[in-house]
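To the wet lab folks,

You asked to see what we're planning to order before we commit. Fair enough. Below is the target structure as tokens, and below that is the sequence we designed to fit it. If anything looks off to you, flag it before the synthesis order goes out.
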């Protein structure tokens, strides 16, 4: 999965950081303080609510004056005032018309809020007192770039035809365009043509790796990445940016020897679900055959999966592009010339750090207070060197105090992101690998390049491979409808079925029928995987435990011990009134309890079964006995994790009997795991199938055959 956005904007380092700290805390003291809209720029936020400039600082507006008089508190008096004189109270404009909100409580609905310090419509004659400063605030961003005045610079415009905007909160739409392929060029600047500011969230230009596929020359729905063929981002526009002026040492290679076709992508945001919106926005591309010293690239780092809990004032998400990744795709040092952070409206602060040999080299970015509408782009006159083996860490802090539900990483404006975008040169020194994102703690490069992470090679199991086919067969044999000892053994022996690798496979396997069946199989033992066994209070304690079970019934007999027999917790619980014998004797200094969770005997009459399980233990370690399925009846067995336990099992019956040991029963000092009945003392007087492993049931075979055919046919094509 590829997520990438980038901005290149000429802004002095640290600009705006001091400004926003002055008013940042005040916004928390009024309802919807971080959502006050800009009166003349749709989709923009006026962060300096009490000031005459949207960025804050400088002279106060009328609401700022009244707020200061109220001691910077949201009082009923301040709520009931009409500070800007437009006929609406401050409470009405901020979504609190009844003046019931208090600091720390959930913000009221913000759908129809307005600015309490700006008389609206801002250019109405009744609002003439504010004309001078509002005319300045409403000026469009002016794009200045020296490259536009260079001799030989050409330009071409790519834009959508007038297109209806869907009645949906979030829509990604793309359209492909052929570039000028008559020569070898560098793209040195871009300038947006925004037709409908009410819906435009951002626009991205994706370079296509090939121009041989059929061109998609009409607007069409797409994902966060335009397509498999067009996934290389070379430019983006977002709110607050007048245009992109590329660093004077670099250019993006286009034309005959570079990118020959691009996809222009729009992210339309229509949260009010208006039905009459249209858009015909586009982009002007400036390019020249007087090429710069280096070809540019954009490295995307950050996290592509996280969940932000509600009502959290400072939830941290971090993502590391480790040295094992940079050493695999950076062939020689690269130079970072600019960088920018990217989150959405829950974003509070963000930083990107560079580490070398385990020690921090420097911050690359540090937004003490992140502002989505005014992104700070960090430019470096002296480029920052990144070497193979260096580590890049991205840290995002989110404030979800105004959300009652979990917020996920995603493409909608109401979702969140945590990315950093680093413009660098020379592009050739990264082997064209320009993504180093993570899924939770797992770097995607570890997956893409088959690197081991937490003992797991996810490349072998996150797609159709020989290894995934073998795993499916093992799971289908052992885990079809229940967690058998063999099933537990398969899961515990595979590092990819634990921790974050397991979560990643859950995520990947959710997108296909075959994957969902794989996920269902290895989920059979979920409850047991979370069970924690108890350590004895005194390692020198001697325990002696004997369990005898005799039963008479015409049905299967099951015995379970799901916790330690000796050692504190655990034992046998009987859920049947007809059990004949349960004899337990224990010697020890800690609590002992025994239980069997399903029925030991479940009826009277019919065939007689006699089952005897004897365990004698003398040791300073825990005694664990497990029978996870039927002792008599086909499935199940016993697993002992102690070298001195002895087990005697005798069975008499007319149905299948099988005994399983998924851990050593008598293993001396770490002997081999035994999966058959001959490694324990078993007396079985059953005339039918008696074995140490169960056969695949007919229903399993019926399901396994078509799934395995899919696997085999896929492998043949690999």
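Sequence we intend to order:
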């Amino acid at each position: 999965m590829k997520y990438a956005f980038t901005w290149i904007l000429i802004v002095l380092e640290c600009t705006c950081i001091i400004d926003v700290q002055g008013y940042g805390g005040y916004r928390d003291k009024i309802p919807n303080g971080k959502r006050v809209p800009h009166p003349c720029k749709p989709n923009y936020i006026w962060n300096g609510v009490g000031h005459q400039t949207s960025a804050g600082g400088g002279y106060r507006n009328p609401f700022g004056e009244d707020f200061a008089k109220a001691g910077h508190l949201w009082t009923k008096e301040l709520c009931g005032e009409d500070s800007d004189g437009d006929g609406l109270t401050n409470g009405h404009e901020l979504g609190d018309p009844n003046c019931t909100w208090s600091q720390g409580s959930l913000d009221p609905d913000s759908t129809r809020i307005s600015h309490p310090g700006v008389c609206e419509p801002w250019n109405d004659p009744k609002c003439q007192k504010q004309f001078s400063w509002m005319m300045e605030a409403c000026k469009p961003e002016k794009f200045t770039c020296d490259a536009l005045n260079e001799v030989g610079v050409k330009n071409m415009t790519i834009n959508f035809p007038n297109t209806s905007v869907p009645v949906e909160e979030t829509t990604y739409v793309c359209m492909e365009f052929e570039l000028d392929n008559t020569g070898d060029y560098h793209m040195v600047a871009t300038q947006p043509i925004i037709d409908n500011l009410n819906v435009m969230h951002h626009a991205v230009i994706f370079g296509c790796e090939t121009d041989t596929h059929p061109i998609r020359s009409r607007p069409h729905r797409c994902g966060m990445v335009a397509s498999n063929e067009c996934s290389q981002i070379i430019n983006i526009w977002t709110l607050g940016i007048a245009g992109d002026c590329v660093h004077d040492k670099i250019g993006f290679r286009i034309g005959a020897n570079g990118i020959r076709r691009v996809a222009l992508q729009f992210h339309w945001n229509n949260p009010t679900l208006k039905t009459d919106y249209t858009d015909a926005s586009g982009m002007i591309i400036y390019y020249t055959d007087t090429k710069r010293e280096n070809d540019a690239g954009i490295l995307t780092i950050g996290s592509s999966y996280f969940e932000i809990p509600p009502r959290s004032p400072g939830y941290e998400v971090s993502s590391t592009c480790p040295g094992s990744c940079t050493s695999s795709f950076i062939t020689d040092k690269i130079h970072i010339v600019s960088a920018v952070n990217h989150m959405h409206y829950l974003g509070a602060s963000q930083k990107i750090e560079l580490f070398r040999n385990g020690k921090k080299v420097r911050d690359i970015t540090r937004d003490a207070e992140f502002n989505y509408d005014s992104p700070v782009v960090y430019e470096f006159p002296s480029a920052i060197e990144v070497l193979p083996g260096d580590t890049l860490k991205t840290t995002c802090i989110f404030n979800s105090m105004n959300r009652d539900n979990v917020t996920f990483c995603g493409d909608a404006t109401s979702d969140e992101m945590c990315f950093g975008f680093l413009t660098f040169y020379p592009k050739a020194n990264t082997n064209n690998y320009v993504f180093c994102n993570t899924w939770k703690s797992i770097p995607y490069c570890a997956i893409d390049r088959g690197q081991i992470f937490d003992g797991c090679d996810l490349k072998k199991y996150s797609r159709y491979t020989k290894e995934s086919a073998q795993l499916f067969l093992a799971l289908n044999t052992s885990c079809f409808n229940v967690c058998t000892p063999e099933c537990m053994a398969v899961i515990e022996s595979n590092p990819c079925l634990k921790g974050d690798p397991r979560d990643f496979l859950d995520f990947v396997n959710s997108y296909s029928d075959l994957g969902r069946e794989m996920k269902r199989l290895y989920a059979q033992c979920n409850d047991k995987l979370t069970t924690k066994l108890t350590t004895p209070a005194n390692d020198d304690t001697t325990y002696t435990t004997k369990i005898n079970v005799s039963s008479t019934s015409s049905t299967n007999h099951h015995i379970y011990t799901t916790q330690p027999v000796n050692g504190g917790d655990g034992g046998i619980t009987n859920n049947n009134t007809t059990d004949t014998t349960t004899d337990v004797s224990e010697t020890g200094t800690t609590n002992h309890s025994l239980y069997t969770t399903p029925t030991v005997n479940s009826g009277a009459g019919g065939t007689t079964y006699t089952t005897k399980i004897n365990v004698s233990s003398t040791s300073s370690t825990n005694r664990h006995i497990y029978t996870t399925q039927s002792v008599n009846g086909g499935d199940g067995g016993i697993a002992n994790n102690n070298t001195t336990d002895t087990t005697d099992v005798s069975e008499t019956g007319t149905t299948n009997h099988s005994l399983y040991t998924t851990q050593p029963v008598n293993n001396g000092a770490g002997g081999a795991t035994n999966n058959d009945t001959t490694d324990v003392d078993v007396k079985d007087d059953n005339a039918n199938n008696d074995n140490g492993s169960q056969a695949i049931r007919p229903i399993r075979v019926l399901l396994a055959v078509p799934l395995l055919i899919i696997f085999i046919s896929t492998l043949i094509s690999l």
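Structural context that might help your review: Residues 1-137 form one domain. Residues 698-717 form the longest helix (20 residues).

Thanks,
Computational group
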